[in-house]
Amino acid sequence: MEIQEACVEACIAEAKASLAAGGVPVGSVLAKYDEIIARGHNRRVQDNAPVLHGEMDAINKAGRRSDYPALTLYTSLSPCMMCAGAIVQFKIPRVVILDATNFGGNEDFLRARGVAVHIIANAQMTAIMGDFIRDQPRLWNEDIAE
Amino acid sequence: MEIQEACVEACIAEAKASLAAGGVPVGSVLAKYDEIIARGHNRRVQDNAPVLHGEMDAINKAGRRSDYPALTLYTSLSPCMMCAGAIVQFKIPRVVILDATNFGGNEDFLRARGVAVHIIANAQMTAIMGDFIRDQPRLWNEDIAE
Q1: Where would a tag sit more exposed on chain B, N or C end, judged by fewer CB atoms within 10 A?
Q2: Could you give the ipTM of this predicted complex?
Q3: What is the mean pLDDT of residues A14-29?
């Protein structure tokens, strides 16, 4: 598949917006080909909403629709078990991961259920997330339930 | 473990409240022993929030806390893949399922990850959910992504 650079940039912008608001810098985008359907970011700090990881916020904002199997999820950080489960449940067939260095482990769970996983190793996002984990380990551990 | 009847009743009350509001009748409760920490129900119709299944709504309402590994999740319907992933991600160690007849399939996923799964086959909840699936198949299929 073709990676849509505008979707990658939107994920990074969402992550940066969350960081600027004091939150966890994970951003996600749902796209249909090159059209952005919804974008979101982690809402733990901002909305006291622990289930609203970036991926979940984007899916929630996409709302009630029947075309999830035609969408691609771009996400700035590799999905946790909750978000991986959501991707499978909503039958989202493709995931583009900007950073699987700072967190990962559910890629094979997704692949085993037929999800195409593309890891693009975006250097800017990997640096932002690495800095966040180093600077705010307590918030990071809270968000990832460690 | 001991099943707390008040938590079972609260799940059913949440499911009924959702049904009365035109929504999907799934209710969930997070409890610490006999203390109800949070309760919630499916918000697809009411809030146009497809990720807020009953379990997710309850977890979200429990909010930022460190004691998820001390909680029990009661849920009126067996968890979908998204909710099962969330249970594992939040390290919730025990799940009480009122109805695994109308929907199920992720119990072994949970057990394989160390979650204790108790299916109590509540007749009232099983009847409510069965009626809903028969009466509103389109909404049910939408919610479960079929």
Answers
A1: C
A2: 0.97
A3: 98
